[in-house]
């Protein structure tokens, strides 16, 4: 049994590393492929291949990082989202499948040749997915972080997606810009002091993209209050939020005068996205 990282030595075979691992099978497979620059098929067809000393050292280092809790996506530098590969680093959140719901809802409400804004784009997952799928759309993405925008810009280029990126503290860089048909956002919505911030992958992700350092609703309030001048009449505002925040977000939208206010469930049946329409 390979029960310590030090046991990953030159001469061990791919088959042995897959049979006996300190990690979950999927994590182990992903890291093996990354360390050896192999695809999944090669792990099967080359199962009796023995690792060189350099390969064993590389793989052991990756395993050690994962055992310490570092997310797989940061270790390999990539995560798939909406069927596309996205570069990720500690400058951005790791895109999650739940957020694909936000992309789908935005796409459904975006008219032909429409304009869409992604607020707090991070890796660019939302904006790039929209631009890649809807070639006719005019897509703009904002983020306050220059490091995040650099990652997002590379993701747009790598996925042949046309996106305008702006460094902006929420709406500040949009003065004079034409209004949008849809504004979508996955803002920081974890309340300050929430225990989840100290657990799992969240420990490694940029804290400013996770929490508003307040009650979890302050960024959502800013987005809701500031959206009207930047939305076309009957335009949609769509926001991802926490699993217990849907009622509060609906109330905020209704109090601000939005219509058709509703929430949509993710694959787990949790109300994950809430939105409303701007009155004419």
UniProtKB/TrEMBL annotation:
Similarity comment: family membership: Belongs to the protein N5-glutamine methyltransferase family. PrmC subfamily.
The record's catalysed reaction(s) read:
L-glutaminyl-[peptide chain release factor] + S-adenosyl-L-methionine = N(5)-methyl-L-glutaminyl-[peptide chain release factor] + S-adenosyl-L-homocysteine + H(+)
Entry binding sites for substrate: 186-189
Which InterPro entries does the protein's record reference?
Answer: DNA_methylase_N6_adenine_CS (IPR002052), HemK-like (IPR004556), N5-glutamine_MTase (IPR050320), PrmC_N (IPR040758), RF_methyltr_PrmC (IPR019874), SAM-dependent_MTases_sf (IPR029063), Small_mtfrase_dom (IPR007848)
Gene symbol? Answer: prmC
Positions contributing to S-adenosyl-L-methionine binding: 120-124, 143, 170, 186
Q: Where is the Release factor glutamine methyltransferase N-terminal domain?
A: 23-77
Matching entries from HAMAP family are given as: RF_methyltr_PrmC
What GO biological process terms are annotated to this protein in UniProt?
Answer: methylation
Q: Provide the species name.
A: Duganella sacchari
The region annotated as signal peptide is none
Name of protein: Release factor glutamine methyltransferase
Keywords assigned: Methyltransferase, S-adenosyl-L-methionine, Transferase
The record, for Pfam families, names: MTS, PrmC_N
Q: What is its EC number?
A: 2.1.1.297
Reported function:
Methylates the class 1 translation termination release factors RF1/PrfA and RF2/PrfB on the glutamine residue of the universally conserved GGQ motif.
GO molecular function list: nucleic acid binding; peptide chain release factor N(5)-glutamine methyltransferase activity
Does Nucleotide-binding appear among the keywords? no
- Keyword Transcription regulation belongs to the record: no
């Amino acid at each position: 049994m390979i029960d310590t990282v030090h046991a990953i030595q030159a001469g061990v075979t791919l088959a042995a590393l897959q049979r006996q691992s300190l990690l979950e099978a999927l994590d182990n497979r992903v890291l093996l492929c990354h360390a050896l620059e192999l695809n999944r098929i090669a792990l099967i067809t080359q199962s009796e291949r023995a690792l060189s000393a350099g390969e064993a050292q590389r793989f052991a280092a990756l395993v050690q990082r994962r055992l310490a809790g570092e997310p797989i996506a940061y270790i390999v530098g990539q995560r798939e989202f909406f069927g596309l590969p996205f570069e990720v680093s500690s400058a951005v959140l790791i895109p999650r499948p739940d957020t694909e719901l936000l992309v789908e809802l935005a796409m459904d409400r975006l008219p032909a040749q429409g304009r869409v804004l992604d607020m707090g784009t991070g890796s660019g997952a939302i904006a790039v997915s929209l631009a890649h799928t809807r070639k006719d759309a005019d897509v703009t993405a904002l983020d306050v972080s220059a490091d995040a925008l650099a990652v997002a810009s590379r993701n747009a280029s790598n996925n042949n997606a046309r996106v305008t990126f702006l460094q902006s503290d929420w709406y500040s860089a949009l003065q004079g810009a034409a209004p949008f048909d849809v504004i979508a956002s996955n803002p920081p919505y974890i309340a300050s002091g929430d225990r989840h911030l100290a657990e799992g992958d969240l420990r490694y992700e940029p804290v400013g993209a996770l929490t508003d350092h307040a009650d979890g609703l302050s960024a959502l309030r800013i987005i809701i209050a500031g959206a009207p001048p930047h939305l076309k009449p009957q335009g949609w505002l769509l926001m991802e939020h926490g699993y217990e925040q849907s009622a509060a977000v609906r109330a905020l939208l209704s109090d601000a005068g939005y219509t058709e206010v509703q929430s949509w469930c993710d694959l787990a049946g949790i109300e994950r996205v809430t939105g409303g329409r701007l009155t004419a």
